[in-house]
Amino acid sequence: MPDYSEVARAGSEWVRVRFNGDFGGTATVWDATVMTLREACRRRLAAGGNDTPRLRAFIDVGAATTAGRALVVALPVAAIDAAAILKTITMIRNFKRLHVGRHEYGDLQHFSADCAPVD
Questions:
Q1: Which terminus of the chain has fewer CB atoms gathered within 10 Å of its CB, N or C?
Q2: How many CB atoms lie within 10 A of CB 114?
């Protein structure tokens, strides 16, 4: 049985899940959107970002809401599957100094204007 509940899904590009964890020493329900970097590119363009995005994987910790603490994680993977979700949950639970805001990591990924990865 999974250690999380799936709230919403759009194919293999993103999923919204809730799981229990800790934030600043307090028990927390994480209300997480886990997405591919390609989906993060699409969302950035839809929000009026530049037309040749460059992105790193990121964790963005938001405010506490009635659904839990908002969390957005963008991963450098082709698809969000059960393994990617479980690895994300483990990463968040093991992150000792997590705080509100954006945490970027990994290599910079380049995308075309239609969010196709560029080598």
A1: N
A2: 10
Q: How do 68-75 and 26-36 pair as beta strands?
A: parallel
Amino acid sitting at position 17: V
Does the pLDDT of residue 41 top 70, yes or no? Answer: yes
Q: Tell me which H or E stretch contains 75.
A: strand 68-75
Query: Looking up tokens 């997405």, which residue turns up?
Result: 35
Could you tell me the residue ranges of all domains in the chain? Answer: 5-118
Give Rg (Cα) of the chain.
14
Residue in the block written with tokens 């479980």: 86
Contact 29, 20 (CB under 8 A): yes
Terminal CA-CA length for the chain: 38
Check residue 54 and give its pLDDT. Answer: 86
pTM for this predicted structure? 0.91
